[in-house]
Amino acid sequence: MVFGFLFLQFGTQKLFGWPNHASIVITPLLKVAASIEFGWGFLILVGLLTELAATLACGEMAFAFFLSHFPLSVWPLVSKGVPAVLFCFAFLFLAAHGAGNWSLDGIWRKRTRRET
Predict the structure, then answer these.
(1) Per-domain residue ranges for the chain?
(2) DSSP 74
(3) pLDDT tens-digit profile of 32-60?
């Protein structure tokens, strides 16, 4: 839930200027990234289609790191790419292990198990 909430905020910042206005030029590629952050972040937050959303979010963060941060420096701390790397590996974990029992996916799985 926390990963989804934090990821969602990056999308809302770029798309809507909330919670604070991003001081960057919003290019079409950045709009696509912001839409992914907003949409997949919401799905990860509520735990719906978590494995798919986390896989795509992981890929977006890897792409963002190598496109934006890696050319500045190999070291994430120097290139300010630490959030991208952390999100990438957090989403990789979620993609591999799922969201858990408190997610909508977990509730749905419990219901389908009881019905069979």
Answers:
(1) 2-115
(2) S
(3) 999 999 999 999 999 999 999 999 999 99
